[in-house]
Amino acid sequence: MRKLAVIAVAAAIIVAIVWFLNTSYLVTPPAGAAKVLAHRGIHQVYSLDGVGNDTCTAQRIEPPSHAYLENTIGSMRAALDSGAEVIELDVHLTPDRQFAVFHDWTLDCRTNGAGVTEKTPMSKLKTLDIGYGYTADGGKTFPFRGQGEGQMPTLREVFTALPHGRFLINFKSERREEGATLAVMLRIHPEWRKLIFGVYGGRTPTQEALRLVGGLRGYDRQSTMACLGRYAAYGWTGMVPDACRDTLIVVPANYAPFLWGWPSRFAARMRAAGSEIILLGPHRGGEFTSGIDSADELALVPENFSGYVWTNRAETIGPLLNKRLAASNDQK
Predict the structure, then answer these.
(1) Is it true that domain 50-216 has CATH number 3.20.20.190?
(2) CA–CA gap between residue 269 and residue 83 (Å, rounded)
(3) Cβ atoms of residues 209 and 215 within 8 Å
(4) In the chain, where does the domain assigned CATH 3.20.20.190 lie?
(5) CB 185 within 8 A of CB 192
(6) GP-PDE domain location, by residue (predicted)?
(7) 88 contact partners, CB below 8 Å, separation of at least 6
(8) Which DSSP string corresponds to 90-103?
(9) What is the pLDDT of residues 207-248, one digit of tens each?
C-alpha cells in the first residue's frame, strides 16, 4: 500500500508540473486581435463533402450571393475592404515566365479553355473566361459566363493593383523554378517583398523560395507535420522544436485543444519563436481542411487569439470578428 501511495504522489506531482508548465491561466496572451486570412479572396463557395482532387468544384457552388470570382483582383480588393489582413492566392509559372493567379491545375473546369494551366502561355490565359464553368443547379444555368473574360491576373498585376495588401502564395506545382522565379521577382522589385506574408504548397518551390529570400516564412505538408509532431512529443516541457521556429504554423481548429498550452501559452511560445499561427477550420479527413466560415465556427477561435483565421467567407467572418472585438473592449 505504501508503494502505491508513493506512486500516486509522484504521479500527482508530475501532473501538477505539466499543468503548471502548460496552463494558459498563468500567462498573458500575445497582444493583438485575431486577423482574417481570406482564402482565394471573396469567392463562390461550395461544400467540401465528397470533394476529391479531380472534382470540378465550379459545378457545385452554392446559389451565388455576390458576383466575385476567386483569385481575381476584384475578389481580393473586396476581401481587403471587408477587413482581411492577408489574401491567400494560387500561382502557376507559365511558359512565358509569368505567374498566373489561378487555382486549378487544368483549365477545363472553370474556364472555356482546356489543358494544363502551367503549360499554357499567359497570353492565352488572358483570353479565357474564368467564370465560364460555374453552375449552382447542375448545369441548367451558368450565372458567371461572360463575366470572367480576361480576369485571370498575373502576380505582378496583383502586386501593382493592391500595393497595400499582403499575400500568402500557394505554389501549385513541385517545380523548383517557381521558388527561384519568385526570388528573382523580389530582387528586381524589392518593394514587393513587404507584400508577401508567406509561401506554402509544393515542398520543392516552397523550400527554394525560403532558401533564396531572406526572412521569408512558409510551410509545406512535411514541415507542418514535423513542427506539430515534435511539439506533441515534447512541447509540454516548454521547448519549441526548431521546425516550429520562424515559420507559419497551420493548426486545424479541432486539433488545437490538444496542443500543449493551447491557446495562450502555445501562442506565446510561437510568438517568442518568431512564428505566426494560422487557425484553420476543423479537419475532416482527406486532403481538404475547411475554413472558419460561420458564426458557429467562430466559437472555435479563442477570445484572446491574436493569430490568423483562415476563412472562405471573409465577408462574413471579418465583420463578426470586429463585432466580437468591440464587445470585448466594451467589457473592459
Answers:
(1) yes
(2) 27
(3) no
(4) 50-216
(5) yes
(6) 55-321
(7) 37, 38, 39, 40, 167, 168, 170, 310
(8) EEEE-TTS-EEE--
(9) 999 999 999 999 999 999 999 999 999 999 999 999 999 999
